[in-house]
Amino acid sequence: MQSSLSESELDMASLLVDTLNLEDEAPEDIAPEAPLFGADEEGLGLDSIDALEIAQAIAQKYGVHIRADDARNKEIFRSLRSLTDFVSANRDG
């Protein structure tokens, strides 16, 4: 499914694919509103270990720290778009 990703969403999708070794996913094919977690057919089906790896990669690349105990994590990690929006809003510099 081809979707229209912004430059920042495509960058985040590439980070997800590279960090999690998603060999069957092309960054440009990740739908911006598809769920990242769970068994939804449209989503990536990620789990909590994946979330930790993603959070670490985001901290290294963007300087944005996502705490494991942040009450907003469910919303932050809801989709590629929500994750990208959170990082964009909280980037250093």
UniProtKB/TrEMBL annotation:
Q: Does the keyword Phosphoprotein apply?
A: yes
Q: Which Pfam families match?
A: PP-binding (PF00550)
Q: Which residues does the UniProt record annotate as the domain Carrier? A: 6-91
Q: Which SUPFAM superfamilies match?
A: ACP-like
* Gene3D superfamilies referenced in this protein's UniProt entry, alphabetically: ACP-like (1.10.1200.10)
Q: Which InterPro entries match?
A: ACP-like_sf, PP-bd_ACP, Ppantetheine_attach_site
Keyword terms, alphabetized: Phosphopantetheine, Phosphoprotein
Q: Which domain of life is it from?
A: Bacteria
KW Transmembrane helix (keyword) present: no
The entry's protein name is Acyl carrier protein
Q: What organism does the record attribute this protein to?
A: Abyssibacter profundi
